[in-house]
Amino acid sequence: MRDAEPRGESQGEEQSPGRLAYLAELQCFMCGSLAGSIETDRKPLPPYGIWHPAGGGASQRLANSRQVRCSGCGGALFAESIEAVVRHDESEELRREAPRRGRPPKWLVEERRRQRDAAETRL
């Protein structure tokens, strides 16, 4: 009986393996230095994603990664290697803020309207 409990817990952990993300290292065309990496949820790489600078700076979301330049010489960047990684983190803050194209769904429009109305009534 006691052995059955840990197995059930381990199965619960296996059911939520994390999310699949693609991590591409970006290098400079001109000087060849590593500028950083960009994390996205699709392949081929879309222009938006989460930027991780090579110097260890804070990660930030990007609307257009094709406009990022080398910090040393200002050259254009290219994806040297793309690898699939499994992320187990629960912080969705940066991914959730990624810009989306097209019309927002009705439920999201209603939710934003309710939040805006609630904020106005507090003032």
What would you say this structure looks like, in words?
- This protein has three helices and five strands; from the N terminus they run H-E-E-E-E-E-H-H.
- The protein is elongated.
- 27% of the residues lie in helices and 29% in strands.
- The protein has a five-stranded antiparallel beta sheet with strand order 4-3-2-1-5, with no helix packed on it.
- Residues 1-15 have low confidence and may be disordered.
- A hairpin with a 6-residue loop joins strand 3 and strand 4.
- The relative contact order is 0.18.
- It has helices at residues 4-15, 93-96, 106-122; strands spanning 19-28, 34-40, 49-53, 60-62, 77-87.
- The chain has one domain.
- The protein is of the alpha+beta class.
Quick rundown:
The protein is an alpha+beta fold and 123 residues long. It contains three helices and five strands; from the N terminus they run H-E-E-E-E-E-H-H. A five-stranded antiparallel sheet has the order 4-3-2-1-5, with no helix packed on it.
